[in-house]
Design brief:
The structure holds two protein chains of two kinds.
Chain A: E1 23-28, E2 32-38, E3 46-47, E4 50-51, H1 53-74, E5 83-93, E6 97-98, E7 102-113, E8 116-125, E9 128-139
Antiparallel strand pairs in A: 1-2, 2-7, 3-4, 4-6, 5-9, 7-8, 8-9
Chain B: H1 5-20, H2 33-36, H3 44-55, H4 70-84
Helix pairs in contact in B: 1-3, 1-4
The chains are: A alpha+beta, B mainly alpha.
């Protein structure tokens, strides 16, 4: 693990109750970024014990934020990188997450041009893919 | 990768028309690349991906500073392919 739940806010700009990742597990050029997240019962994105698809997309985006934030921190920048979702494409939803599930999210950066990165994201739970998508992330 | 300018033009028109869903016939040498392909700032990363996939090099933002028309783009491709050859 690279960044614990206790320190995760040091590398992402999101704040409670919208934080959708707990730990940064991996961040390197070969494997990309990987985070974990334990869904709590009081999560704001839960309705009827189901996590909304939008929350899983946010989970992918925050995995990007954590990865970019960690890399930036390693270069000596102490402020989290601010960014936003420019576009979501090739979205496929295969399943839903529920409270107490642990989500493992992987992101790989496919290409970067100027301040825009095209990424491929995948959210897993118990070894099954719940959602995959591509996303354009703009770092401001 | 060695390509003549004609081959560059033919290849480029094929993948640009397919990726950005435009008719090949509107991709003319003196047409404005950004307007013809209806590119916004987010679309350039898609352009970079298809260039890398089809031509084997990755252009930078600086490379596009001199590109206005498709002719400019072909000239950029020609120069980049010579660099990597």
């Amino acid at each position: 693990m690279l960044v614990s739940k206790k320190n995760i806010l040091n590398i992402i700009p999101q704040r409670a109750p919208f934080v959708m990742i707990d730990k940064l597990l991996v961040a390197n050029e070969v494997e990309g970024f990987k985070t974990s997240f334990q869904v709590q019962q009081d999560n704001v994105f839960i309705e009827n014990n189901i996590v909304s698809e939008g929350a899983l997309i946010e989970n992918v985006a925050q995995t990007c934020a954590a990865g970019f934030g960690y890399v930036s921190q390693q270069k000596g920048n102490n402020e989290p990188q601010l960014g936003f979702i420019g576009a979501v494409s090739k979205l496929k939803v295969f399943g839903v997450a529920k409270s107490n599930d642990e989500l493992i999210t992987k992101v790989s950066v496919l290409s970067t041009f100027d301040r825009v990165s095209l990424i491929q994201g995948e959210v897993e739970c118990d070894g099954e893919i719940l959602l995959e998508c591509q996303m354009k992330i703009v770092i401001t | 990768m060695t390509m003549t300018r004609e081959e560059i033009i033919e290849t480029t028109i094929r993948f640009l028309a397919e990726e950005f869903e435009v008719e090949k016939s509107i991709i003319l040498p003196d047409s404005n690349l950004q307007e013809t392909l209806d590119l916004d700032s987010l679309d350039y990363v898609d352009l970079v991906v298809v260039i890398e996939e089809n031509l084997g090099f990755k252009p930078t933002a600086e490379d596009f500073q001199t590109v206005v028309t498709f002719n400019d783009f072909y000239t950029l491709v020609e120069a980049k392919l010579k660099e990597v050859a």
